[in-house]
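Researcher: Batch entry, complex prediction.
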Amino acid sequence: MSARPQIKNLDLEMARFQARLKVAAGFVLLLSVVLLARGFYLQVVQHDFFTQRAENNRIALVPLAPHRGLIMDANETILAENYSAYTLEIVVAQTESLDKTLADLGELIEVTPGQIRRFRRLLAESHEFETVPLKNRLSDEEVAIIAANRYRLPGVEVKARLFRNYPTGDGMAHVVGFIGRINDTDMKRLREADRLQNYKGSVHIGKVGLEQSYEALLHGRTGFEQMETDSGGRAVRVLSRIPPLPGHDLKLYLDSNLQAVAEHAFGDHLGGLVALDPQSGGVLALVSRPGFDPNLFVDGIDPETWKSLNESEERPMVNRALRGIYPPGSTIKPLMALAGLELGLVKATDKIVDPGYFSLPRSSHRFRDWKPEGHGVVDLSKSISQSCDTYYYRLAVDMGIDRMHDYLAQFGLGEKTGIDLEGESSGLLPSREWKQRRWNKPWYPGETVIAGIGQGYHLTTPLQLAIATAMLANGGKRIEPRLVQAVRDPHTRTWKQQPGQVRDKLAITPAHLEVVREGMLDVMRPGGTAAASAAGAPYTIAGKTGTAQVVGIKQGERYDARRLARKHLDHALFIAYAPAENPTIAIAVMVENGGSGSGTAAPIARKVFDYYLTGHYPADMKQDVKRAAN
Amino acid sequence: MFLWMRHLDGVLLLLVLALLGVSLAVVASASGQSPARISGHLVNISLALAVMLVVANVPPHILSKFGPPLYIAGVVLLIGVALFGEVRNGSRRWLNLGVISFQPSELLKVALPLILAWYFQRHEAVLRARHYWVGAVLLLIPFLFILRQPDLGTALLIGASGFYLLYFAGLSWKVIGGGLVLGSASLPVVWSLMHDYQRRRVLTLLDPGADPLGAGYHTIQSTIAIGSGGMFGKGWMQGTQSQLDFIPERTTDFVFAVFGEEFGYLGAILLIGLYLAIVGRGLVLALRAPTLFGRVMAGTISLNLFTYVFVNIGMVSGILPVVGVPLPLVSYGGTAMVTLLLGMGILMSVATHRQINRS
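Model: C-alpha cells for the complex:
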C-alpha cells in the first residue's frame, strides 16, 4: 500500500469521525433538554401539587382518644370506670397468612380457643385493614415476648387501649349498660350525626343503658396530634397537639346499696322493680332480673357466651323495668277509683253489694271476683283494700272505655315515660279508637269490664306503674323519671345538677285523692291484702297489690309466650309509696309468675323501703353486703 | 510534579472530583449521615480513583490487549451464570464464587467496548462490512445471555455501548437507519416476548397511579420528591421525602430524587451541566485521540456515561421505566464506581499517551 491513499484515507476518516462526534453531541444535548424539560415540569410547573403531596405524605393526624366519663351512684360509688391495658391486635391485610400468624402467636403466648372465636367474629364484622384485638389485658411478660418477636409477626401489634370496667357487675347491667366495639351501624349513625370525626381514636361506643343514652356526654372530645411520620408510618416528632377533653362524669340518683337490696329481695325470681323519688322523679333503684355481666361485652363477647345469653329462656338481656310489658291487674284500681271520683261516677260513701260476680245487662256471662263468695257490702275504700273486682267491673261499665283511657292516660299509661335510657316500651292503654285502628274491630262491652281490673288489652311496664304511683304520692305531678342527677364538667370539675322534668300537673280534688290514699293505707293495715308486708314497719306505707292472670290473657311479649307453656303462675305486682304522710319513695314491683302480689311482690318492696327509710339491710343479706363493701 | 500525574487529564479530573464532591454530600444526606455509608462510600471512591490512576498510566495499546481476555472471561462467566447462577428476585444474574458474588454483566460493560475497539483497531486499514458483522456478533453474544437472565435494562445498556462503538467505528448510516426501522417494526414482537415484570414496569411508567403501593410506588415517591424540591430545593438534609424514608433505594439508584428534592431545579441544571461538561470533555478527547482505538473508546465511554445519566434521571423523574441503573459517579455502590472511573482512566490514558504512542 502506498503512503498517499493511507493519509488521504486518514483525513477522510477523521472528517467522518468528527461528523459522528457532532451528531453524538447533538444527541446528548437533545436528551439533556428532555431531562431539563421534565425537571422544569416537575419542579416549577407542578411544584405546588408535589409540595402538597409531600406534606400529605409526611404529616399524619394521630387521634388521641379521650378518657370516657365515669358513672357513679348517688354516694359517688363508681359504677363504670376506665383502665388502660395492652391488647394484642392483628391487621389481617398485613399478615402473610392469618392461620400461620395465629399459630405462631399460640406458641409464644397463651391464646385460648374462646379468644380465637371472638377474634374471628370481630374479624367478620371488620374490614381487612382494620386492627382487630385478639387478646386483651396482656401481662408485662407477654408484651415483652411479642415485642421481641415482632419482626417475624407482620401485622401483629401491641396497643395501649382504654377499657371500661363495671365493678358492680350484673347488678347494674340494666342501668349502666355497657360499651362495645364500634360497628358498621354505629359508624353509620355517627356519620349521619356528623360526629364521626370525634371517634377517630375511639374503639368503643356505648351500646346499652346509660353508656348509650349519655354517649355524647360520656365520650369526650378527641384530641389530635399532628405528627411527622416516615414512610412506615412511624412517628418522628410532634408538630402540634390539641389535647383530648375527657368526657363528663355522671352522678345518678340511684343508690347502689338500695339497688343491691332490691336485687337481693328478688331472690331467684324474675321481674322488674323501679323505685322513684316522687318529687324529683329521680330513679332510686331500677332492677331487672336476671342481670348479666356487662364486662363480657367490653372486649367483644365470644360467640358462645353471646349465644347462651341471647337464647336463654330467661332473656337476661331484656330490661324488664323498661321493656317488660305486663297487665297491671289490680294495681290499676287506685287510679280507677280516682277516675270514678273525679268524673263524678261514684262517691266515696257509695256502697255496692258484691255477690262475687258481675254481669252485664241482658247477659248471663258472669265476670267473677277473685273471692268466689264475694266481698259483701263494699265502699270505695274497701274496694281498694280488699281489691274487690266486682266494684271495678261496675265502675268500668259506668265509665266506658274511652273515658277510662283518657283519664288513665294522664297518669302516663300507654306512653313512654321519657326516662334517660333508650328502648323503653310505651305499653298499651286500650281504647275504642285503638282497637279499631289496630285490629279493625269494634269494641265489645265485655272488654270494658275486664279493663276495669287491669286485664284484657292493658299492658304496662314497671316504670310506668312507678310513675303512676309517684303521681298518687306527689298529688298529680307528672314527673319524668331520671337516672342522672348531675353531670360533672371535665374542665371545671364541678357538678351541674340536671333539673328534673315535670310534664304535667294534674288537678286532682284533694278530697278525692285523700280517699284513694286512705284506701291504699288500708291495704297495708290489718285486713288489707298486703297487711303482712307492713307488719312492724316504723313508717306508714300506702300500697296496692296486683295479680295478673297469665293463662287466657293476650300477651305482647314473645318471651312471656314461651314461659307460658312451662309456667302458668300469675304475675305478681305491687305498687306503693312511703312514708304515706310525706312520701320520699314510690315503687312498682313486678315478679314474673310470682303467684300473688301480696305473697311475693309486696315483701320485696318492704325490704327496699326498710333500707331506704331506716338504713336496715334485710336480715339475710348482711354478710353479702359486708363482703361487697370491701 | 510526580511522574504518574502526567497521565491525568486536568480538566476531566477536576470535573470528576467536583461530581464526587456532590456525590458525597448527597449520599451523606440520603443515608441520614450514616457513618458506615459515608465511610463505605469514601472507600469505594478512593479505590475507584486508584483504579483510574493506574489505568490512566497504562498506554492505550496495552489497554486494548485486555479486550479479548476480559471479553472471553465475561462470556464464560455469563455461561456460568446461566448454568449455576443464583436466582435473586426472580432472575438469574449473580454468580457466587465462594468469596464474592457478583454480576458478570458488570464486567461486560468494560469488556465489550474494549474488545470491539481492539478488533476495529486491528483491522483499521481494511474495514469492510464483514468486520461490522463480526462486531455485531461480538455484541449479540453477551446481549442475548443477559437478556435471558432476564435483565432487559442491563442488556440494553450493554447493547447500547456496543452500538456506540460500532457507530464511532464508522458503521454505515444505512445500516443504522435500517436497524431503527426494523427495531420499531419489531416492538410488538418484543412486547410479546417480554416478561410480566418488564411489561408491568412499562405500563407503570404510562400510569404510575394504577398501582401506587406496588410497582408505581418508587416512581410516585421520587417524582413527589423532585417536584416538591421546587426551584431552589428544600436544602441539604432538609428533604422530607428523603429524610423520612419515602424514597426507596435513595442512596443508590434513586439518589437523584434526594438531590432534586434538596437542591431543586437549579441544582439539577448544575448537575446536568456538570455531566455535560464531562461528556463534552470526553468527546473533545476523542477528537484529539491519535488512534482509532482511542477515538472510539473515548467516544463510547462519553456517550455511555451520558446514557446512564439519561436513563437514571429519566427513570427517577418518571419518564423511563425503572431499571437498575445508578446515577454515574453519584450513586453509592462500589462496582459501578470502579467501572465508571475505570472508564475515566481509559479516557485519560487515551488523552495523555499521544506522544508516547506516536513515537
